[in-house]
Fold this protein.
Amino acid sequence: ITLTVNRTVPGVNVQCKAYGHALSIDPRILDYEWCAILDCDEFIMPNPQLYGSIVDFIGSIERQRTDVISLNWKFVGAAPIEGGIGGAFLPLTERNTRIVGVGAIGEGWRLIKSIARPRLMSGSGAHFPINPGLEPFVARLADGSLHEALSPPPGFPRDAMFADSGQYCPAYILHFYFKSAAEWVWKSSRSRGTDSLAGFDPARFDDNWANPYVLQAEDAHQEQTPGADPLSVAARTERDRLRTLPGIREAEAYTREAFTERLKWIAQEIVRLDVPSRVRENWRFIFSQMERECSQSEV
């Protein structure tokens, strides 16, 4: 793990700035043939019936000229935190198992995340890398077909962040986007990738904010996360080993304390500012669910 200090000012897209730092400042990045640009709640899921590892999956695509591998998202639905705020530190991959149906929350399934060749990138957006060269990237979807981005969702311009079709059988990104009601509110109360200094703002909590959470909660899709496949079991074993290391154990304890204190403060502000009144009445269950998750006894 290489820590790069990334100072910023209001209005700067800190996410893209961080990607630019990571891909251009440390020359060791060029020692790697591929680089996946992901958030920590996103997991690459190669089909274990087809591939024994991510290396096998990438090898199957790069038999053709490939500079970028574009993977579709599958969203994982929210699950209540059990046993108090401490329950939020149980692994997402074990407490959230319901996959939201494609299209159930709108066009989000069309978004992709990228695995790309570092030597060809000068930086990256949230979804697709930046190419400084004269020749465009050759980008492919998970099935090896060209990612041409010819048909964006209605109302959006053509952009490589959108796939023209959903390809999930070879591999996809499992995105634990919603987590729980408390974490959904917490996520919306912190700084953003587009502006790292933007903090808690009650105006964020409106019907547009609540709508995707309500849609995923009402979705009856029955697909479950593949927690029992060999790749998932191996990843879980490695995760548990890493959590025993002193430095990681100390960082997790610090994060747990900071998250808990911040969430308690947010819950108080929600009540003090009457934030639920900004959302239509039958959608305010998000806040009542958050209150239940935060008020249960600690584990």
Helices lie at 14-24, 54-61, 92-95, 181-187, 207-218, 230-242, 246-272, 285-295.
